[in-house]
Amino acid sequence: xxxxxxxxxxGSMPEFEGSRVAVITQAGALLASVVDGVRFxxxxxxxxxxxxxxxxxxxRKVDAARLRSTTDIGxxxxxxxxxxxxxxxxxxRNRVELIxxxxxISGREAKRRLKLGETAVERTPLGLPVAARYPVIAEGLVSxxxxxxxxxxxxxxxxxxxxxxxxxDLDRVERALVASAxxxxxxxxxxLPGAGIRFAPDMLRAQALEWQGRLDPDGTxxxxxxxxxxxxxxFGLLRNGLYPVHANVTPELRGIMDTLFDTFLSARSxxxxxxxxEPGNDPSELDGVYIDGPSTKGERFGAEPFGADPFSADPFSAxxxSVDTRFDGDRRTGGEKRADILRSVFEAxxxxxxxxxxxxxxxxxxIHINASxxxxxxxxxxxxxxxxxxxFRRVKEAICTGGARKVLFGDNGDVLYLGDTVRCxxxxxxxxxxxxDGGCIIPGCTIPARWSEVHHVIPWQKHGLTxxxxxxxxxxxxxxxxxxxGWRIRMIKGRPHILGPLxxxxxxxxxxxxxxxxxxxxxxxxxxxxPWRT
Length: 534
Fold this sequence. Notes:
Region (Disordered): 510-534
GO molecular function: endonuclease activity; nucleic acid binding; zinc ion binding
Helix content: 25-40%
Keywords: Endonuclease, Hydrolase, Nuclease
Strand content: 5-15%
Strand order of the largest sheet: 11-12-13
Structural class: mainly alpha
Oligomer: single chain
Pfam family, one: DUF222
InterPro entries: DUF222, HNH, HNH_nuc
Largest sheet: 3 strands, antiparallel
């Protein structure tokens, strides 16, 4: 089919007869007749690529028009308008219900469009035009160069940065991300890798997170632990003989899991087989297994009551304390405890000598951070292959546990120097500390030595030595919270002593930490012929 359009004057658009509704209807019918007549499998490679590009460009224009139309209907259907609301006039309770009925879309999609429209579409709530909050996004949508999905990513990033960075920086991020999403080269993207190439939404999301991490590092590691993202792991109801697992993990735990998974998957030798050690291999015998965690009682991963939601009805979600009647500051839910257990399992497996190597080295998660940011106590870390940044607090913990290496780069980005690992306890030191402490030294914690980390009592940055007399074992949870939980540690004659929080120890008395069971000799057995010996 060949379409012939009458020549139009330069810089002008052809005029159409009839109303806008009729024109859109005619255009839709024309497009349908063209698309219905295309046999995609009969196109050669070049035509197939060109057709897809043309359809996507047209789709972006239509998506932008639908977004503007939905936003306009949403303004007309505001409940604040009372009887004048378009929703009330059509018997709907609110604007979302009106849009879902009118457009035949889900409430979720309606809310999605309205949310983006509030920031990227010009509106007229009281008959007066209100410019879009993010004009560069709005311009990209109208031109058809920017897709709705990319616009949502950019708008979400800018909203998260709103009020946290200077307006000029916010404008710079908007222009840079829109340029990356549309493949344009602007002053904000000149010299950056990939400048001039259209970034797909997945790549754009990673770039947006990088901008956010650099301009607002505190946003990735809030001071309030209550709002910081935490890993969770939840088991669902038994289905077809299997328990579904629902998990949300932090970027660092994702990096640990990815590294170990990739190591086993890339191992050229036969990987170990994990089989039940108890008698019997019937899978049904494994139902209702008890797994010992941070609490002193095992958590039962059995079937929940019939009809319960498999993920929301977590039997441990309302259990902030362990069975110990003394509150030790552990406010984790059951899902968070399971995620921490999984993390410890992965870390222990990574240290196991039988774990396959990758590229000749043991599986190690590398966290990168700028040296200036580290010295000044700011910024974030980055794990290769992981989009989201790692908080500065976790970077310090990783350095305390795993050590650090300094890398110097030249003006051309070439590596000038790679230093040795520093600030890290050796394997022999860890063995000696484990023999002394036996596990996490916090009272009531049952995490064994093999799942614990070595902590500098006097921080390394405060000239604390990396030796046995300055290292103690802490589980991941207590290591992570040692600076905020109220527990204090000091060394006296080579042995750790503990001072608990006021709620745990009202007398505020320094007490020796528990040590390994093997460090206490057994009493000499009683002998009748020597009654004076006990």
